[in-house]
Every structure is written in C-alpha cells, then in structure tokens.
Design brief:
With about 110 residues, this protein is an alpha/beta fold. The protein is built from 5 helices and 3 strands.
C-alpha cells in the first residue's frame, strides 16, 4: 500500500498480481501516481483494477492465494481521517492532554 505518489518504481508495480484503488476515476487524474502512469502507457486498464468498494461489497475478490503480490494505491478517504482524528482526541481526553479551544460563540447551525 503506497501513501504518496512516488514511493515505488513502476517496474515493481507492473509485476504485481493484483491492483486496488479507492476510486479509479479520481486515481487516473493524478499524474504522479504509478497506477496513472501505467494507465497512460497502456500497461493497465480499469478492468485490471479493483476499487475498494468492489472488494468490500464482494463484487470482486481480494487475495486469491497466499503467495499473491498485491498493490494498493489510495488517494485517501476523508472518513478515515475523521476516525483517526477522533481516536487521537479520545486518547488525549483519557490521558488528560491538550487544551480546550473555543471555536465560536454561537455555531452557525443554531
């Protein structure tokens, strides 16, 4: 699983047995991603790639056997950021760390 654009060389990725992305249409718009480079040179197509949603919904399989090498390129999912931040917040509260900040006098939704 790569977290940035150029963490792995394209030749290494092209040797993988399976490819996973969070959202194909978004992924191929980012020129720095190896998956995008492979798509642009014609060594991979949408049919070669599984979106994470297809995996979760059981529409496509993940690992087919234990020795399979898989590659996942993620642009990131905002919900994951929120979950991680909330866990960090909960840990800080439990450990009595941090400072309470006043963000507004009256929230806009009141």
């Amino acid at each position: 699983i790569n977290m940035a654009s150029n963490e792995v060389h394209i030749d290494v990725v092209e040797e993988m047995d399976g490819y996973f992305v969070d959202y194909w249409k978004q992924m191929i718009t980012y020129k720095g991603k190896v998956i995008t480079q492979m798509y642009e040179k014609g060594s991979i197509s949408k049919e070669d790639v599984t979106e994470i949603s297809e995996l979760v919904l059981g529409k496509k399989p993940g690992r087919k056997h234990a020795k399979q090498s898989l590659y996942c390129s993620s642009m990131g999912i905002g919900a994951l950021d929120i979950m991680v931040a909330y866990q960090i917040f909960q840990n800080a509260v439990e450990m009595k760390l941090g400072t309470t900040a006043k963000l507004w006098d009256n929230p806009m939704w009141e």
